[in-house]
Batch of 2 targets.
Target 1
Amino acid sequence: MAFYQLNKKQFLPATKDEVWDFISNPGNLGLITPDYMGFNITSVDLPEKMYPGMIITYTVKPLLGIKMKWVTEITHIEEKRYFVDEQRDGPYSMWHHQHIIEPAENGVMMRDIVSYKPPMGFLGAIANSLVIRRQLEDIFNYREKVLEKRFR
């Protein structure tokens, strides 16, 4: 089964506190996700801050507009440094996403490391080369533009 990794970096001219407060609030996930993904949080009464063990449920339309459930768990947090979300149920065979914030001159460097396995073995590998990888790149490019506007 194929395993892939997407690495992204983005400089933000903001304080660590400002960036952390935004990205660690699960209510902001929809703001940084393109509309075509049909992203909708279905968890009820989410707090404004993530915590280890937190389960977040969503619906998404990752492929051909087909609505799917996605369940992630926040597995690790080091306040104002990083958090990790892992898929518990959803479109991937495996999903592990590290969100890292590091000090940088005049702001912070935000890094994302997404490790994932598409479903369906070799068919998933083909889908990754044709669709999945490009779609993930598009999602992160969208997020980069949203965050640039927010923190300029």
Note: The CA atoms of residues 54 and 106 lie 32 Å apart.
Target 2
Amino acid sequence: MDQIKEQVTAALEELLEEADLREHDILVLGASSSEVLGSKIGKNSSQEVGEAIVSTILPILKERGIYLAVQGCEHINRSLVVERECARRYHLEEVTVIPHLHAGGACAVAAYEHAEDPVMVEHICAYAGLDIGDTSIGMHIRYVQIPVRLKIKEIGKAHVTAMKWRPKLVGGERAKYPGKIR
């Protein structure tokens, strides 16, 4: 578990540096504890792994004032665990379900248990995302999505991908853009 926590910390800190998130921005996490352990997604869920991942990420994000949204699995339609404060701030559509190990997944369960006032929402538009185990979080990232190439390629045995957001560039050949785009 210590190695998983170290890998999660390194990946998250690199993503945060690259994504330039601000207070009240949302970061989405998708994670398969089964993949982290080297099994096929959904076939070897581990609450211990989910707890290790979420308990590592939460303090880092809280320190920066960034909201965490944790995507559940397809058995709960990839709904997400967020704090009620986040759901209200962003006018998110709340849904009725409580994640558990085999319908939601270990990380969603850990996030629900760690939250001060958890709610489940149907969809979000996060500013960045960390995907541990190819759980397909892209639907929850704002457009335009930019891949972030992390130095950490795996957490445990799970493939890791990350992405950030930038605003759309609009206009044509006469349009001008700022020097730095988010």
Note: The CA atoms of residues 48 and 57 lie 14 Å apart.
